[in-house]
TrEMBL record:
Domain HTH araC/xylS-type residues, every copy: 275-376
Gene3D superfamilies for the chain: Homeodomain-like
Superkingdom as given in the UniProt entry: Bacteria
UniProt keyword annotation of Zinc-finger present: no
Protein's UniProt keywords contain Transmembrane: yes
Protein name per UniProt: HTH araC/xylS-type domain-containing protein
Keyword tags: DNA-binding, Membrane, Transmembrane, Transmembrane helix
InterPro entries membership: HTH_AraC
Alphabetical list of SMART domains matching this protein: HTH_ARAC (SM00342)
Organism: Prevotella dentalis (strain ATCC 49559 / DSM 3688 / JCM 13448 / NCTC 12043 / ES 2772)
GO MF term (any one): sequence-specific DNA binding
Length: 376
């Protein structure tokens, strides 16, 4: 009973997010790449269904679910990477789709064919000798080839884990840098909890890599050992699903706009461009406008947004978001000194912030303390 509850937990977590994402896609369409995340959740559900069959020793169903397990085990990390690509780049190339789909399907076809070709005695011998004892001893013919294919799948899985972690973290960071360069207010545009997502990705990859290296056979019959990875996977999968489900903004929603007019002849250096940006921001206090965009500043200067971004990056080493929020916080600090009785809500609104929490976070980030004098 306890083993059944432990082994079914990750599957139920994945099934829950699969249902939630399916309802969300039905109601809102493919916002924030939720359809790609739904595909990942479906594969993860089938993967842990295969685990349930394996650890509960249902040998009659094992050939079918072991085949599904091989497919989904090789697909689950690439599918999550595909989701990140869809989320951060807006489209998934045909070559990426092929790289995600072909290896799992090919391995699944081979494993399924070998199960069909093996006799019942050979199947039983493979299950007992290799799946539950991880032994190549006494394996021969089709049984030996089946074990080789499973071993190759473990190696390919490890490669998929490393590639997903490396490529996924790079794409998440690049997307957030893009958002920071275009918008002053990024809370609802950045990947929510980017640090959390990256930490979860690392943790999931480490646990998966370790469990794959040890092998499922090692946990069979050891309830307390089995509980450790399954509880960890349940929590990690729930967190990954939660972060993805809450995300409502993606690359497709980014307002890239057009490049606009070329730079004016008199602006010959980035330093001059920065001086112009500082002038218009200071004179007109554009930084106090809610939801300010770099295009707004570029249009005010009659220039190309790339020059505004480049001036900030090269001369100040800041993104547009950081530059504007520093100005807002400086302004809020001055107001706070002049009007110590002002409320936090009013102070944040006057500084250009839509929410109290965003104001608090940015004030603490750039000033190193919270505006306690204004708490009322």
């Amino acid at each position: 009973m306890a083993q059944s509850m432990i082994t079914v937990a990750p599957m139920l977590v994945c099934a829950f997010w699969m249902a939630m994402l399916a309802l969300d896609v039905k109601e809102h369409g493919d916002r924030a790449a939720h359809r790609a995340l739904l595909l990942w959740a479906a594969a993860a559900t089938l993967l842990y269904m295969g685990h349930c069959v394996f650890f509960n020793r249902d040998t009659l169903l094992l050939p079918l679910f072991d085949t599904l397990y091989v497919v989904c085990n090789l697909a689950v990390f690439p599918l999550y990477l595909r989701y990140l690509v869809r989320l951060t780049e807006g489209r998934v190339s045909r070559s990426t789709n092929l790289l995600v789909a072909v290896p799992p399907v090919a391995f699944g076809v081979v494993v399924g064919a070998l199960y069909l070709l093996m006799t019942p005695l050979e199947t039983a011998h493979f299950i007992e000798a290799y799946l539950y004892r991880n032994s190549f001893d006494s394996l021969a013919g089709l049984v030996w080839w089946m074990a080789v294919v499973h071993h190759a799948g473990k190696v390919l899985f490890a490669v998929g884990v490393v590639v997903t972690l490396w490529v996924g973290t790079r794409k998440v960071r690049r997307y957030n840098r893009l958002v920071d360069s275009l918008y002053a207010d990024t809370d609802n545009r950045r990947l929510r909890g980017v640090t959390t997502i990256l930490v979860l990705m690392v943790a999931t990859c480490i646990v998966s890599f370790t469990a794959n290296a040890i092998g499922r056979h090692y946990f069979a019959g050891r309830l307390w050992l089995l509980a450790i990875p399954f509880v960890m996977f349940s929590m990690l999968l729930f967190a990954l699903g939660y972060c993805g489900y809450r995300q409502q903004f993606s690359f497709e929603d980014v307002e890239l706009g057009t490049d606009g007019p070329e730079a004016a002849p008199e602006a010959e250096s980035m330093g001059q461009w920065l001086a112009q940006v500082r002038g218009v921001m200071s004179d007109e206090q554009l930084y106090l406008l809610p939801d300010l965009k770099v295009d707004d500043v570029a249009r005010r200067l009659g220039t190309n947004r790339r020059y505004v971004q480049q001036a900030m990056n090269e001369e100040l080493g800041m993104t547009f978001s950081e530059y504007v929020n520093r100005l807002r916080v400086d302004y809020a600090e001055r107001v706070l000194q002049q009007e110590p009785g002002i409320t936090v809500e009013e102070l944040g609104q006057r500084a250009g912030y839509a929410t109290k929490s965003t104001f608090y976070r940015n004030f603490a980030r750039f000033k190193g303390y919270r505006p306690k004098a204004a708490e009322r």
